[in-house]
Every structure is written in structure tokens, then in C-alpha cells.
Amino acid sequence: MNREFEKQSLDGSPSSSRGLALVGLPTGSARVQVRLVNRASRRAWCRLFAAAVVAVLAGLVGLAGDVSRDGRVAAEEPSTKDAKTVEVTVDYGDGAQRRYVLPYREGSTLLQVMEAVQMHPRGVSFKYRGRAETAFLTEIDQVQNEGRGRNWLYRVNDLKGEESFGVHRVAPGDRIVWKFEKFGG
After folding, report:
1. Which long-range contacts (CB under 8 A, 24 or more apart) does 59-64 make?
2. What confidence tens digit (pLDDT) does each residue in 100-133 have?
3. DSSP 8-class letter at 79
4. What integer pLDDT is reported at residue 83 of this predicted model?
5. Which residues contact 43 (CB under 8 A, 6 or more apart)?
6. 143, 123 Cβ separation under 8 angstroms
């Protein structure tokens, strides 16, 4: 079998390889198929691929900068641009957590913030009893309060809640954590 490759243009006439790389079947085969590849186009794709690789690596390096020595991702402090948001973290007490950043709404209670979390496409479900100053959260994502054991307790900016979540007003930039833990823990 002949191992030479024939250079042809699309109309079958001989072609110069100027700016084009021509790929075909060995000469002498019954049918010669030709594919034209523009070298400039190939260079553009190579540059695009290289830029994508650099962007991915830069992103990985950026993420690595936020990881502490024990492997946990460092929490971001609210900045002035985040002042119009409220951050909610649900800590299941077993190492699993879910975090939501929601827009701040003037005059919202913690109950209203939890309802907004529930409406999120990947939100949590929760149950409570009572209303306003007697509202008491009893369950998040089918994890129920245990009574004398662990229960759902909230903290706002690292301070334990001292009133019902039905009346506690949130402020812009608040960091709310619901944790399944023993009272006093």
C-alpha cells in the first residue's frame, strides 16, 4: 500500500499547502477523502485551550488560598458590598453544613429568613410551632429536636439567641447559624 498522502483542494484539483493542512487517505485508494484544516484556526483553538487551562489553574490556586491547615475553607467576613445580605448556615452537628447567602429585607425576622431559605431551589425544609414570640423551631430537614438531648439552636454573629426566632429581627450582614446541639453546648 502506498503511504504517500495527496494534497487536494475541495474541488479535487491540486492545492498548495499555504495556510492549510490537508489530510487525506493514501494515494491509490479507491476514494480519496480530504479534510481541510485552517492553520490559523488551529492556532486560535490552541490559544483558547491554553487560556482555559490557565484560568482553571488560577481558580484552583485561588481556592487553595482560602483553605486552612486543617482542610477547612476559611469563612469570608462580610464586606461593604455584602452589607445588604444575610448569611444562614445550617449545621447538622455531624460535620455536614449548608450555607445560604440571601438578600437582606428591611424588618425581616429570623422566621422570615428561614422561609426564604426554604424557598431556595436547594433550600432546607423546617417545621415549627407557635407564632411570633412563641414560635419554636422543632425540625430542619427531617432532623427533629430530641427534647433532653440535642435540639436546633440559633446564633446570630456568634451570640446565642435569647428570644423566639419568630420575633428576632435580622440586620444587614448578620451571620446566622442553626446548629443541632445540646443546650449549653
Report:
1. none
2. 999 999 999 999 999 999 999 999 999 999 999 9
3. -
4. 72
5. none
6. no
